[in-house]
Amino acid sequence: MARLSLSYAGHLSDRVRALYHGTVVPEGIDLHFLPMSPVQAFNRVLRGEFACGEMSFSTYVLRVAQGNAPFVAIPVFPSRTFRHGAIYVNAAAGIAAPADLKGRRVGVPEYSMTAAVWARGALMHEYGVQPGDIHWITGGLQTAGRRPLTEVRIDGVKIEHEEQRALNNMLADGAIDALIAPQTPPALLAGDARIGYLFPDVPSVERAYFAKTRIFPIMHTVVIRRDVWERDPWIAISLQQAFERSKANCLAELAIDEPLPISLPWIGQYVRSIRDTFGDDFWPYGVEPNRPTIEALCAFLHEQGLVSRRVEVDELFAANVQSNAGIRL
Fold first, then answer.
1. Three-class SS state of 93
2. Shortest CA distance to 149 belongs to which of 84, 255, 60, 270?
3. CA distances, 163 to each of 115, 149, 168, 177 (Å)
4. Which stretches make up the SsuA/THI5-like domain (predicted)?
5. Cis peptide before 148 (omega within 30 of 0)
């Protein structure tokens, strides 16, 4: 049988590097991997330009809730990050604790972006700060003019879009009091003392959050265009297993002691500390290992008014992948 040619758009990381270089090949598929930034991939996958690709997890759940998802997901999660460290403050704003965000102007590149959903979920459940307590300003982080993937209007929540100024500059100048963003503001990276973190010791706060909740936030998933999957449903299983093998190669490389697998001193000790905290598979794919985390995201989206109903985990992923869980080609 001839191999099926599929195009894929997504960011290039150690977890997917073997797929990009072709050292892991999905059975029956010639995968044409086009590396690009997540935002580029999301927009182009949404426009139907690729057979499969990386997608914002919250955007995908929103589409499922609305009944207009033009694709189906597999439980592969190329990006996941704790988001306490994604909350930045203007140093002169007098924000010393999460509760001080109430009544403030807080920037966010896109209100419905997954990073913001996770950060607001933590603020709500851990610190009692509700979305309606904040005046939200959306816009581009580094340059003005960013338009959202999804237009959002929520009763009781003030959301204003900024067209003229970048959020990075607004935070530094005090035009906004705080910022939630997946990328570090350039001014902070440049050493601008006007900007700091809400939580000064980010790793300790995020480790405590994981110890309490067992949630390792998921940012992105992998989707297949629905017409492509319906025509050849077997590709979901093939891709799932190939992504699993690529990730397994990555984790095995991180266990190498000599020579160092990546250019960071003491990486071996750090990897061992991560395994002590998360277990050997500290970046799990599949539905069941991630069910509590996915349930939390679905709950946060509903609580924050972004979806009219709470989406169930088993609505999200290709049925044949879930029924073949654990099978390896």
1. coil
2. 60
3. 21, 15, 13, 18
4. 27-156
5. no
Domain contains 51? yes
| Average of per-residue pLDDT across 99-112 | 97
Mean pLDDT value of segment 289-315: 96
pLDDT at 328: 42
How far CA 165 is from CA of 91, 141, 161, 175, in Å, comes to 20, 9, 10, 10
> Alpha-carbon distance 98 to 187, whole Å?
22
Q: Quote the tokens at residue 85.
A: 């460290």
CATH number of the CATH domain containing 168: 3.40.190.10
CA 97 and chain centroid, separation = 25
At 54, is the secondary structure helix, strand, or coil? strand
Q: Dump pLDDT digits (tens) for 209-264.
A: 999 999 999 999 999 999 999 999 999 999 999 999 999 999 999 988 889 888 99
CB 60 within 8 Å of CB 316: yes
Are 89 and 178 members of one domain? yes
Look at residue 326 in the predicted model and tell me its pLDDT.
Answer: 44
Decide if 286 is inside a domain: yes
Report the chain's mean pLDDT, rounded to a whole number: 94
Q: What range does the domain containing 169 cover?
A: 84-213
Share of the chain above pLDDT 90, in %: 89
CB 18 within 8 A of CB 245: yes
Note the pLDDT of residue 258.
87
Angle among Cα 206, 244, 326 to the nearest 5 degrees reads 105
Cβ–Cβ < 8 Å for 115, 219: yes
Q: Of 117, 119, 5, nearest to 60 (Cα)?
A: 117
Specify whether 139 is located in the same domain as 70.
no
Residue 270 contacts residue 254 (beta carbons within 8 Å): no
